[in-house]
Amino acid sequence: xxxxxxxxxxxxxxxxxxxxxxxxxxxxxxxxxxxxxxxxxxxxxxxxxxxxxxxxxxxxxxxxxxxxxxxxxxxxxxxxxxxxxxxxxxxxxxxxxxxxxxxxxxxxxxxxxxxxxxxxxxxxxxxxxxxxxxxxxxxxxxxxxxxxxxxxxxxxxxxxxxxxxxxxxxxxxxxxxxxxxxxxxxxxxxxxxxxxxxxxxxxxxxxxxxxxxxxxxxxxxx
Length: 222
Hints:
Number of helices: 10
């Protein structure tokens, strides 16, 4: 039976971490992984909850990162690093690094399903990057925070259901983030597939994924 697939972009279709790593490694004396962990904590737990209007303000993020790391604040340094974050972000669509299984998965999934890109930001640019790489358009719908509200909670996916005129049982959500893709989708009544490329343990007590896959090709079997 045909389904609507709500598909995440960053670290699901695109290796976003690999784009950030060379730019951020060593900043604040941290590895790129440590800095991205800190950034995501600030971004998702503070910005999303208290300052949603600052979602794309990398300079403001740096102020909060300084506080979290208990570092003396230096505005010049903060602006320089914010610029580095922006540069890395833009690389995800100007010079993308898609996973080897991405285009094959999208081609095969589109044969039987309706594909919907459900990302946090810059959805149109990300969809265009995929279209340029593959020479074809895969998505019937392209959504981000501007269409559906802030990604990270069930309301985002409920709005996606409304925007696609679909029911929860018609949809499968696919993403790499347990919190922002899997739990949020499950709380909206949607079945969810966790792309766990790094083999991370499922340690949360919140609703778990309906299926866990090591890559996108494995999802096709589900």
